[in-house]
Amino acid sequence: MTEPPLAHFRRHRFPAEIIAHAVWLYYRFPLSLRDVEDVLAERGINVSFQTVSEWAAKFGVKFADQLRSRSRGHFSDKWHLDEMVVTIKGKKYWLWRAVDANGYVLDALLQSRRNKAAALRLMRKLLTNQGTAPRVMVTDKLRSYSAAKSELMPGVEHRSHKGLNNRAENSHLAVRRRERRMMRFKSERQCQCFVSTHGEIANLFLLHRKYLTVADHRQLRAHAISIWREIALSIDV
């Protein structure tokens, strides 16, 4: 029996499986572009890190959009919101992030301000993308959250205490590791594109292994990989 021909993205020399695998390596693990280049080279795939960068930028967004549409409406109704400092070219920015009670990233938004207007922008984006308001919102003691929530979601319960917001605090760690590996983000656009894509792919492979048996973990991991392959090979470009 002959093997079926490999799928190709239009105008791309490498098969779709290789491109999707390179994108997966870059966003799934804390690897630099040159690390991905070396991993592929060990498998006999000679591609430059510049090409890997182009693949990650072009296809990563498309894959993330597919994952985002699949997960819409499947998150917990308890949202944790927080922000962290990001320095780009010597200028301070704030990366606002929202995760649900299980640690899945709902959204991330880079902004230059840490005030009510910035909090409103994040909440509007969350309501638009999720299609529903949360039951509970947990934040630190930044007053901008209370002001924005009172305007947009007055009926939502708000718990404001730094000790309750570890879910959101911990969600920053993965981005911090990648920021160090990339030797900081190079531009606002690059940062926003990366965190939006990284969050969706991280959600797919967040399996909470601590609470699973080995058999269940392997089954869920295989399911996540099959979803990734289905999405990656269904993109029409």
Automatic annotation (TrEMBL):
Keywords: DNA recombination, DNA-binding, Transposition. The keyword DNA-binding applies. The keyword DNA-binding applies. Residues 77-205 form the DDE domain. Pfam families: DDE_Tnp_IS240. PANTHER family: BLL1675 PROTEIN. This is Transposase. It comes from Rhizobium paknamense.
